[in-house]
Every structure is written in C-alpha cells, then in structure tokens.
Amino acid sequence: MKTILISLFLFVSPYLHSQDISYNRKIVDTLSSSAFWGRGYTKGGMKKAADYLVNQFKLLGLKPLGKKGYLQKFTYPANTFPTSMDVTINGTRLTAGKDFIVSADSRGIKASGKLEQKDSVTFINIENSILVTFEKKLTWSAAQEVSNFTLIQLDKTKFTELPTFINVNIENKFVKKFDAANICAMIAGIAKPDSFIFITAHYDHLGGMGNDTYFPGANDNASGVALLLSLAKYYAIHPQKYSIGFILFAGEEIGLLGSKYYVNNPIVPLKNIRFLSNTDLAGTGVDGITVVNATEFPTEFALMQKINRDNKYLKAINARGKAANSDHYFFTENGVPAFFIYTLGGIAAYHDVYDKAATLPLTEQFDLLQLLIKFNDGL
C-alpha cells in the first residue's frame, strides 16, 4: 500500500507543479472582458458567458450532468438598464460607475429640477421622485423588482460642492422572465459513480449599467469559475472513486436563484452528494481563506486545516458559521454537507467597476487547487 501511495504521489505531483496559473488567468481575463459585459442582463452577457463555459467543459472532456445537456434552464424577473445612463449635477456630466450609480431597483426617468437637501448626505427632487445620496463607496447590485422612485448614489470623494440641480436621462427595462441557465457537467467515478463530490461557483455578475458601463466581476466571480475549471482539468486526467460534479450557477447576484432552482429541481439527487465545495471571491488569498459552515462540519474542517498545516499552502484558514451568502446555502439547508470558501486580503474592489482582471493577483489559485484536491481525496 505504501508503494502504491508513493507512486500515486509521484504521478500527481509533476502535474501539479507543471500547472501554473496561466489557464486560470486566461479564464479570468476572458470572462471579465467587455465582450461578456459583466455576465449579466444586457447585451446578452450572461448567455455569451454560458456558451463559452459549456465549450470549456467540452474541451476538457466533461460530460453533461444530466440527460438534457449541460444547461439547466430557468427564468426569473430582472430590472435592467440597457441604454441611456446620463446624469448631470450642477451642470457637470457624471461618469456612470465612477462618479455615480443608480440603485438596481430604480425606475427609468427623463427629467430635470432642483434638489432639496434633507440632511448631510441626502437630497431629493420631490416632483420627479428622485433621491440623491452621497456614499463612501459605490457598490452596485441586481434587483428582481422596480421601485416607484429613482435613487442616484454619488461618490462623495468626487464632489466639493453640494448637489443643487440635476438633469437625468435613465432608461430601465423590466424583464419579467429573464432566461438563465445553470451549467452542469461531470466526470464519472471509477468505483462508485452514483456518489458525488460537487464543486460549484457562480458565473453570473452584475452586467452593465447603460450603454457604456459594465461591471467586470473578475474576483466576483470569474476567479471562482477559473478555480473550478482548473479542478475540472485535473479530474478529467485523474478520475476518482466517486463521480465529480461541477455546477456553474446563474442568478447568484440577484438572490442565489440558480442554486435554489437546482436544489428544488436536482439533476443528481441531493442524498447522493457526499460533499459540496463552493468557491466565490477566489482571486486573492494573501491573508488566507475563510470557510463558511466550518462550525457545521467540524470533522471536514479539521481535515482541511490539517492538510494546510502539513503542506503550508495558505497563511490561515479561518472558521465561520452558517451564512446565506453564496450558493452553498440552499444545499446545506436541504441536508447536503457543504463549505463556502472565499479568499482574504489584497484588492478591495467589490461590486464595482474596479473589480477587473488587470488588478486581480490570483495569489493563491494554485495553492487552493492543491488544497481542494487533497481535501476531496480525504472525504
């Protein structure tokens, strides 16, 4: 047995050491480029990303998880901003994404008028139901509904005077049934093909805000997709005793909708999933990682910590309890043991136009790859 383990290590190790992050970098660069327009709700961004990722699974030799192909299709409502995104304050035209954002649930409007100050950071135009606020950081999101007002958030650091007059032309389009799809693939197990280890990540992001501004989503979550695909690349060459399932979820940014849909419509029965590792915000790691659900599954968390201590992959592995903050959540709530792993340190860009590939270090992608391989081996 010892000889077999040594031989296996010698076989796997050269692959790992020859594997740099150039593949991961290519995936992140591609997915966060303007061609995919934030992998969201305008200019076909999410669909283009799905088509690209299906092709990646095919190139790696993975098969569909179910009998209906790689895509698990579903719909949900989404408020979108496809074209006009013009805001002028005190006669100065602002730049969308950098000087201002509109709240994701805002209605479209074309109007102008005076702004009345309500407090040090809040200004309103009652006639046109426009609310303007100063913010320390512009953080965008996605919404499934439309409000009866328009909220415009300004980067406080860009203004030396109070906003007193506004001219705005914003178009929104509410889509009652936005077409989305989870992307599901697998590598069959050698000994127990009906038992699965799942690796998941969401591939959607926030999309675009008007004609000229999009949110690249390099760390959130092109980085997690890159890590997932590098694991798929490894397991395609090294099939395991158990089947390995890979799911790239849509609709995470708008309310964990893709993972919720899968849990309610499982392709692989939930009872057949031995463990699920979900990766999101995987592009840094200089300060280590946090593991959500560590307190829920202490035996598995101890295993991960031991692997890290023995191999010195990451600076720290921090424990966190249950949290509904990514796609692991609905699985855990329905009896599937799962971790959600995210990296710590490095860039502070999040849900903004600065979360781009050029400034994302991918510091620990290689170490995370090795950690997850050895963790799955120990399950």
Helix-strand layout with pairing:
Elements: H1 2-18, H2 22-31, H3 45-60, E1 63-64, E2 71-80, E3 85-89, E4 92-93, E5 100-102, E6 109-114, E7 116-119, E8 122-125, E9 130-135, E10 150-155, E11 165-170, E12 173-187, E13 192-202, H4 218-237, E14 242-249, H5 257-264, E15 273-279, E16 289-292, H6 298-311, E17 317-320, H7 329-333, E18 338-343, H8 365-378
pLDDT averaged residue by residue: 95
Radius of gyration (Å): 22 Å
Number of helices: 8
Low-confidence stretches: 1-18
Word description of this protein:
This protein has helices at about 1-20, 20-30, 45-60, 220-235, 255-265, 300-310, 330-335, 365-379, and strands at about 65, 70-80, 85-90, 90-95, 100, 110-115, 115-120, 120-125, 130-135, 150-155, 165-170, 175-185, 190-200, 240-250, 275-280, 290, 315-320, 340-345. The chain is an alpha/beta fold and about 375 residues long. It has two domains: about 15-80 and about 175-379, Zn peptidases (Aminopeptidase, 3-Layer(aba) Sandwich), CATH 3.40.630.10; about 85-170, no CATH class. The strands form three sheets. Strands 1, 2, 12, 13, 14, 15, 16, 17 and 18 form a nine-stranded mixed beta sheet that branches. Strands 5-10-9-8-7 form a five-stranded mixed beta sheet, with no helix packed on it. It is elongated. Mean pLDDT is about 95; it is low at about 1-20.
Summarize the structure.
The protein is α/β, with parallel strands linked by helices and 379 residues long. It has helices spanning 2-18, 22-31, 45-60, 218-237, 257-264, 298-311, 329-333, 365-378, and strands at residues 63-64, 71-80, 85-89, 92-93, 100-102, 109-114, 116-119, 122-125, 130-135, 150-155, 165-170, 173-187, 192-202, 242-249, 273-279, 289-292, 317-320, 338-343. The chain is elongated and about 70 Å long.
